[in-house]
Design brief:
single chain, 12 helices, globular
Amino acid sequence: MQTLLWSPFCCMILFQLTTYARSAPLRWGFVGCGRITNDFAAVIDALPDTDHTVFAFASRNVSRADDYACRFGAAKSYGSYEALAKDPDVDVVYIGTINPTHYEISKLMLANNKHVLCEKPLTLIGAQAAEIFKIAESKQLFFQEAILTRFFPATIRMQDFAKTAVGDIRLVTAYLGQNSATSLRHVRKQLGGGSVKDRSGYVLQHALAVLGNDLPDKISAVGQLNNETVDSTAAIELQWKDGRMASLGFSLLTTVMPAEANIYGSSATIKMPDTFARPTAVQLINSANTTIENYPLPTVLDHRTFLANAAGMIYEAQEVRRCILAGLLESPLLTHKDSLTILAIQDEVLKQIGVSYDSLYANGVFVGSSLEPELQAPALSPVTCYNTFSH
């Protein structure tokens, strides 16, 4: 067995992400003040202040926004999303609110000429995403769904192996589960819950990363629904006419389900070890030997984070800056078509297992619960802050 640390390929990727034309730092605005926003703000705070700045937070609870602004040294905090959208000093917005609000908030930010990085799932309904991308493109604004896996060096190396080292790909598998039965945002329909919308983006992006982003010719799905009529567990089989296949599973109920993903080819197998959604290693296995390439996380964050391997969000943030400076409207690592294909598959899966989110919207406006994810996050340690924030 051969073990490699920081292969030349990894160094090349990091060089491309970090040594780009210098410009003024991106001033980040953060919408929603929950766990995921905490983690992404911690990443932005860890990056050079010549490239990125934690600039403003917005929450419907202004004291929450003030608290986050204090923690991360932001200049401004707002008690409404509209106020942040209208701030001319915000360059790019990170959206970390509950799933049903992504559509409306994305349009609000684009209407105010902001570049956007929006957490996955981009929308609950595929047609909403198509509308968002059309608006972004018409206004020449960068818009990215935040499926962070695609930006990890280990994922990029996996794609390279898939193209050059495994022969014809016969089957792709990926499974992801964690017990989230007590998390309201995961299990309540009004909050956009369900395993398809929370978990399947990871397994689907893995399959499409190596099989291509054209729609499968056949999609078969089964699922188990909870008393909120959203799915707790589901499984998907994807098939293309040329023989490509994927077998994928995900759950909100399992206590032990290794987050593993594999690619089986005619001459070799690629294995992504546990935590493939935020990978730090890739294995290539053939008849001769097993090669393991390790990609340690780039830094240690100064703030407490909730997500495993949260420091890997750095790759995503660096790619946003690279694309904006280059005048790109999307990242080639995760294109708009990639997102639309994932959402189209999700639409079909939800249809087959009997889940619909249509009732959450009236004329494109979210009419469900106003409960925000930040209300579900455990309290962080108290912070004494003497700053006066601009609201």
